[in-house]
Amino acid sequence: MTLKTILITGDPVLHTRALDVPLIDDYIRQLVQDMFETMDAAPGVGLAATQIGVGLRIFVYAYGTDDEEIRGVAINPELSISELSDEELDEEADAEGCLSIPGERFPLKRANRALLMATDLEGQDYQIEAEGWLARIFQHEFDHLEGMLYADRLMKPHKRHMKKAIKENNWGIPGLSWLPGKDYLEP
Ligand code: NI
């Protein structure tokens, strides 16, 4: 297992649509192991392959509640989501973060329900109906595979604040990355 460095916004891989996984082979199995290890070390609740520089349609997720821990890998996922409610944006409850924009959090409206359909590491198709935070994780990670970061979806004034944060950190250029456990203690 290898801990991978996580790309920071500005690298082209993060902003390019990822390609389908043609075959689940040893390379993919190793990649997914490394993704779990990197996500756990970060720590994060999700990680897409694009974030470690691999333009393939894979993400991992780990979401714990008091009752259960939902942990898995989604290969070649599809996602359908419910309509956005017209509730007002809640600055705290809707605050989202991303390991590719480490240390920053901004509120973003997401659909409250999502249906994830994907293939697991054994090549089996599965689906999960998610609500709330898990639905948000699925939407966030799926966006990564479309080459989209949550920064791209922010509304005013958060979009402007995000741009400022990226500028102040000297991000937004290719080739920047950080290593979990080393560069940022609490992203
Ligand atoms: Ni992210």
Q: Main traits of this protein?
A:
binds nickel (II) ion; 187 residues; 5-stranded antiparallel beta sheet; Peptide Deformylase; two-stranded antiparallel sheet
Secondary structure topology:
Layout (H helix, E strand, L loop, with lengths): L5 E2 L18 H16 L4 E3 L9 E7 L4 E13 L13 E3 L7 E3 L5 E7 L5 E7 H14 L12 H11 L8 E2 L9
Antiparallel strand pairs: 1-9, 2-3, 3-4, 4-7, 5-6, 7-8
Bound molecules: nickel (II) ion.
Nickel (II) ion (NI) binds next to α2.
Quick summary of this structure?
This protein is of the alpha+beta class and 187 residues long.
What does this protein structure show overall?
The protein is of the alpha+beta class and 187 residues long. It has one domain (6-178): Peptide Deformylase (Alpha-Beta Complex), CATH 3.90.45.10. 22% of the residues lie in helices and 25% in strands. The protein is built from three helices and nine strands. The protein has helices spanning 26-41, 132-145, 158-168, and strands at residues 6-7, 46-48, 58-64, 69-81, 95-97, 105-107, 113-119, 125-131, 177-178. The strands form three sheets. The protein has a five-stranded antiparallel β-sheet, sandwiched between helices. A two-stranded antiparallel sheet has the order 1-9. The longest helix has 16 residues, at 26-41. The protein is globular, with a radius of gyration of 16 Å. The relative contact order is 0.21.
Can you tell me the CATH topology? Peptide Deformylase
The helix fraction, in percent, is 10-25%
SSE sequence, one letter per element: EHEEEEEEEHHE
Architecture per CATH nomenclature, i.e. the level-2 architecture:
Alpha-Beta Complex
Unreliable stretches covering 5 or more consecutive residues: none
Tell me the CATH superfamily: Peptide deformylase
Main pleated sheet: 5 strands, antiparallel
How many distinct domains?
A: 1
Ends apart, CA distance between termini: 22 Å
